[in-house]
Design goal:
The complex is a heterodimer of chains A (113) and B (112). Chain A has no helices and eleven strands. Chain A has 113 residues and is mainly beta. Chain B has 112 residues and is an all-beta fold. Chain B is built from no helices and eleven strands. In chain B, the strands form two sheets. In chain B, strands 2, 4, 5, 9, 10 and 11 form a six-stranded mixed β-sheet that branches. A five-stranded antiparallel β-sheet of chain B has the order 1-3-8-7-6, with no helix packed on it. In chain B, a hairpin with a 6-residue loop joins β4 and β5. The chains are: A mainly beta (113), B mainly beta (112). At the A-B interface, β5 and β10 of A face β5 of B.
Chain lengths: 113, 112
């Protein structure tokens, strides 16, 4: 099992450009999450999806959109990138049959110039 | 006040000693707690979770939970240089749509 995979690993964008970060999990988890991690700020939840077809805002949703394409895939879209969105983005998934422990993908390092 | 607080460190511990990492939380409704290890440039990796008062041991790691004091800790026995990383504490509140709240992490350095 690959666990949680993310693409791309690195990306540089110019201000105003758009892009989609892809995430997939092969653990048959219902819940999926997108976080950003910035120095001194810890992990902050952007959006999450408790099940296929549902999405909800987290702590810092402004400037982002998400799509839960199917049970395996959860994408994060930046419509018009801003330098403030320079960060490391992590996708995670969790099993709602247990204690909801989350498993993380390898991350995408995004720089917006 | 942040919901989950950790001392940011850095915490330096000699090799072979016990490293003690601490975390406090503000939401008394929090029921399960998680410790993640994150190496520089890598993603968080789950080490342990605990949801009952008391101690839970897994190899060199022991998680401790005191709900009355709203306090969670992680002890690492026989610390190794490979334990040098940032340790993240997280809490989950039931009926919170399975959302974890993370602390900002404690950076641990094991000195050979």
């Amino acid at each position: 099992n690959a666990g949680v995979t993310q693409t791309p690993k690195f990306q540089v964008l110019k201000t105003g450009q758009s892009m989609t970060l892809q995430c997939a999990q092969d653990m048959n988890h219902n819940s999926m999450y997108w976080y950003r991690q910035d120095p001194g700020m810890g992990l902050r939840l952007i959006y999450y999806s408790a099940s296929e077809g549902t999405t909800d805002k987290g702590e810092v949703p402004n400037g982002y959109n998400v799509s839960r394409l199917n049970k395996r895939e959860f994408s994060l879209r930046l419509e018009s990138a801003a330098p403030s969105q320079t960060s490391v983005y992590f996708c995670a998934s969790s099993d709602d049959r247990g204690v909801y422990e989350q498993y993380f993908g390898p991350g995408t390092r995004l720089t917006v110039t | 006040q942040k919901e989950v607080e950790q001392n940011s460190g850095p915490l330096s511990v000699p090799e072979g000693a016990i490293a003690s990492l601490n975390c406090t939380y503000s939401d008394r409704g929090s029921q399960s707690f998680f410790w993640y290890r994150q190496y520089s440039g890598k993603s968080p990796e789950l080490i342990m979770f605990i949801y009952s008062n008391g101690d839970k041991e897994d190899g060199r790691f022991t998680a401790q939970l005191n709900k009355a004091s709203q306090y969670v800790s992680l002890l690492i026995r026989d610390s190794q240089p490979s334990d040098s990383a940032t340790y993240l504490c997280a809490a989950i509140t039931p009926f919170g749509n399975e959302k974890l709240t993370f602390g900002t992490g404690t950076r641990l350095t094991i000195i050979p």
